[in-house]
Amino acid sequence: MRKIIIGIAALAVLASLVAAAASTLYGNKSNPSSANDSTAGSQPALAAIRGLAAGYPGDVGIEQDSAVVFRENFESGAIEDLGQRWTQISDADYSVLWYVQDSVPGSPGKRSLQMTATKGHDTGGHLWKLLDKGYDQLYARFYVKFAADAPYVHHFVHMGGQYQSPGFPMGGAGSRPDGAASFSTGMDLGSREVVNPPGAWFFYSYWCEMRSWQTGEGVPDGRPNPYYGNPFGPVVPEQAKRNEWQCVELMIKCNSAPDKHDGEEAYWIDGRLIGRYGPGTITGTWFTDVFRQSGVFNTNPQPFEGFRWRTNNDVKINWFWLLYYLDSVFNNDYNPHDPNIPYNDNKAQVQFDDIVLATRYIGPLAANFQPSCDINGDGRANVIDVVGLLLMYIKDPQNKAADYNGDGSCTIADVLALLRDILEGNC
Predict the structure, then answer these.
(1) What is the pLDDT of residues 245-297, one digit of tens each?
(2) Longest Cα separation, the chain
(3) How far, in Å, are 41, 70, 112, 142, 395 from residue 245 at the CA level?
C-alpha cells in the first residue's frame, strides 16, 4: 500500500513538474516580452539546473559571474605572459610549455596549453596560482587531453589551502600536514596494475588526520616518511582517456569548525559525479592509509567519518596547481596494462584548456554537455526515467545516484533537469 501511495504521489508531482517546467523553462507564451526574448532569465535558470557553465555557452562571459574566482583559456598573449596571470611557473629551459592550435569541441577558442615532459631533461612542468583570498568551498574545472601514446602519471592537478603561503608550491611528501597550517588534495591518476595509461582518476589527499602506510592501524612505526597521500576513488576504477578531451572538475569543502569532521571532496568526469567523500557518503574500513570499500581488508564496514581538513578556520582553500609530474614514470620501467597499445615513457605530452575556479558547481562547457538521461537503463529516455528519478529522490533524498545534474546534492532540481533534457531532445 505504501508503494502504491508513493507511486500515485510521484505521478501527481510529475504532472505538476511538467506544467511547471513548460512555464519555467520555456516562458509564458502569452507574455509578449518573454515570447520575443528567448534569453530572458535563461542564464540563472540554466546555471541552477546544470551548473554555472550552462548559463554561458562556450564559457563566453563566465568570468563576469560573481561565483567565478579565476578563469584561464590560454587565448591571450604568449607563453611568457602567463606570469601575469599565474603566481609561479615551471618551464625548464622554456621547453615544457607551448601553445598548440587545438581546443575543446564547443569552445570558441583556437588554442590550448601543451606540457611536454622529457626524460633526462625535466620531470614535467606546472602553473601555480595563489588566489587573492581563501574560500571555505571551491570548485575547479579544467579540460585535459593526453597524447595518444601518453604514459602513466606520477602527480597531476592539485588544490588546497596554505596559511600565510610563501607564494610558491610547497611539497609535503612523507609528512602529515599541521591542521593549523595546510591541507591539499590531488586529482591524480593511478591503478597501473589494472588500467591502461595514463591511469584511473582518484583523489590523493593530505590532511591533519590522514593515515600512515606503515601499519595496519595507520600509525607510523618509526621508519622515515610515514605519510603519503591517502587515496580516494571508486571501487571500479575510472579510466582516463588518451587522445580525447575530458572535462574534470574537483571540489573541496572545508570543515565548518575546527572540531568538526564535516569536510568533503568530490570529483566529476565529463559532468558525471564519480566520487563524493564526506560524512557517511561511503562505507568501508580503514586499513593502513586506505579507506577500503571492498576486499578482504574491509573487515568492519563503517560510514566514512568525513574530513577534518583544518584545525584553524583561518586556513582556507587559496591555491590551484596545474601540474604534470613524471618523476617516478621516468625512473621506473612501467609497462601498460595492455602491452599492445602505444606507450612513450621518454617524452610525455598533455594539453589543458578552459580552466574555471568558482564557489559553485561549474559543469562542462554548455555546448559540450551531453547528459545521460536513461535512468532505468532500458536504452530509451522518456517520462519513465523521470518517474524513476523522482521515486529515487522520494525514497532517499541522500541517494547520490539521484544527483542527475552533478551539483553534489539531491533535490527536485535534478528531476527538473532530466525533464528538460528529455523535452528538448538533449539526450
Answers:
(1) 999 999 999 999 999 999 999 999 999 999 999 999 999 999 999 999 999 99
(2) 75
(3) 31, 21, 11, 10, 36
Assess contact for 264 and 251: CB atoms under 8 A.
Answer: yes
**Helices 383-395 and 2-26, axial angle in degrees (round to 10):** 120
Q: Cα dist. 46→43, 70, 127, 163 in Å?
A: 5, 21, 31, 36
Asked if 230 and 253 count as a contact pair (C-beta separation under 8 A), the reply is: no
Q: Which of 247, 275, 252, 251 is nearest to 263 (CA)?
A: 252
Quick one: CATH architecture of 63-358?
Answer: Sandwich (2.60)
Which parts of 37-174 fold into alpha helices (H)?
42-50
Give the lowest-confidence range in 33-37, 138-142, 174-178, 282-286: 33-37
The closest alpha carbon to 52, from 282, 209, 351, 271, belongs to: 271
Q: What is the DSSP letter of 52?
A: G
Q: Which three cell numbers stand for residue 340?
A: 599492445
pLDDT of res. 398: 73
Q: Does residue 48 have a pLDDT over 80?
A: no
Exposed, middle or buried: residue 337 (CB in 10 Å: 0-12, 13-18, 19+)?
Answer: middle
- Residue 186's DSSP bridge partners are 158, 204
Whether a cis peptide bond, with omega within 30° of 0, leads into 220 is: no
Return the pLDDT at 393: 80
Domain ranges within the chain, ordered by starting residue: 2-40+371-423, 63-358
Instruction: Give me 237's grid cell.
Output: 576504477
- Whole-structure pTM over 0.70, yes or no? yes
Judged against a pLDDT cut of 70, whether residue 16 lies above it is answered with: no
> How far is CA 89 from each of CA 73, 77, 92, 128, 354, rounded to the nearest angstrom?
16, 15, 10, 6, 18
Report residue 343's pLDDT band, with 50, 70 and 90 as the boundaries.
very high
